[in-house]
Each structure stands twice: as C-alpha cells, then as structure tokens.
UniProtKB/TrEMBL annotation:
InterPro entries per the UniProt record, alphabetical: DUF427, DUF427_sf
One Pfam family linked to the record: NTP_transf_9
Stretches assigned to the DUF427 domain: 14-104
UniProt-recorded name of the protein: DUF427 domain-containing protein
Species, as recorded: Roseovarius halotolerans
Superkingdom of the source species: Bacteria
Amino acid sequence: MADITIRKAEGTWTVRAGGAVLAESKNALELSEPGYPDVIYFPRGDIAMAFLDDTDHRTTCPHKGEARYFSIVTKSQTLENAAWSYADPKPDVARIKDHLAFYSSDTVTVERV
C-alpha cells in the first residue's frame, strides 16, 4: 500500500474558474501521496455542483479505487475533466468519499485564502 496520508487542510480553501467561486470550504482534506503533489479534496456540500457535469472519463488508482471525472462549465468555456472524485474509495482512503479534487491550471485556481 502506498504511504498515503489524509489530514484536515488548515484554513479556508477555494476553487475559482471562469470568474466564479466553485467551492469554498473550511472542511477540505489534504491528501499526500509519495511522488505526487499534495491534493486538496473539497466536501461535495461545499461545491457549487451546478457548474460541474459528470463525464464518461474514468481512471483507476491501485491505492484509491476508480475515479469519476467532471467538467467545469463556465459562461465562456467547458473545462473537460477538470475535477475528479472517488465515489467508492478503498478503505484506507475512505475519508475522501463524497469529496472532489480539482486540477490547478491557468483557468482553475485552487488556493488557501
């Protein structure tokens, strides 16, 4: 098993895209996995899910399970597969169930405020 750690992300975290705040949470989780940058997972209840469309894209992680992807739909563009979630994560990472993570990019900002 990979040495994955999950802890409460300190402070308030936001996700912005297309000029809109898609998520703001004081209950985000920070997942650390060797060889990868830390990832912030936002509780689904703190995300404006109306901006997200479920896609057919799936990937499988041997340590976390199957990831489902979401596109972010803004007024000006659709950002394909810009967020992901593990609907049924493996037991060791069960805390990330009902959370989504977002790829940081030129068009999506994930930051602590």
